[in-house]
Design goal:
The chain is an all-alpha fold. The protein has one domain: Colicin D (Four Helix Bundle (Hemerythrin (Met), subunit A), Up-down Bundle), CATH 1.20.120. It is built from four helices and no strands.
C-alpha cells in the first residue's frame, strides 16, 4: 500500500493532499510491526505527511510539496534497495 501510494504521488498521479490524507489514514491504522530500518523510513514519511502544508509560503518552517515528495521518493528508493539485495 505505502509503495503504491508513494509511487502514485511521485509520478504525479495523485495530489499532495490526497497522498497526505491516504497515507496518514493507512499509517494510523497500521497493525504490522516493521524492522528498525523500515520503521525509520516510514516514520520519516509519516512526519513529513503530518507536517505537510499545501501552501508553505503562508507559514515558515513547514513541510511543503517538495519535501513531502522527497520523503515519498526515499521510501521508494529504500524498497528498491531492499529488493536489489
Amino acid at each position: 500500500m505505502y509503495v503504491d501510494l508513494s509511487r502514485n504521488f511521485v509520478d504525479d498521479s495523485i495530489s499532495p493532499i490526497d497522498f497526505m490524507t491516504r497515507f496518514l489514514a493507512e499509517f494510523k491504522n497500521e497493525r504490522r510491526f516493521f524492522d528498525e530500518r523500515t520503521g525509520d523510513v516510514l516514520n520519516a514519511l509519516f512526519y513529513a505527511a503530518e507536517e505537510f502544508v499545501d501552501h508553505p509560503s503562508t507559514r515558515p518552517n513547514v513541510v511543503g510539496e517538495l519535501q513531502l515528495r522527497a520523503a515519498a521518493r526515499n521510501l521508494l528508493e529504500f524498497v528498491k534497495a531492499q529488493n536489489d539485495q
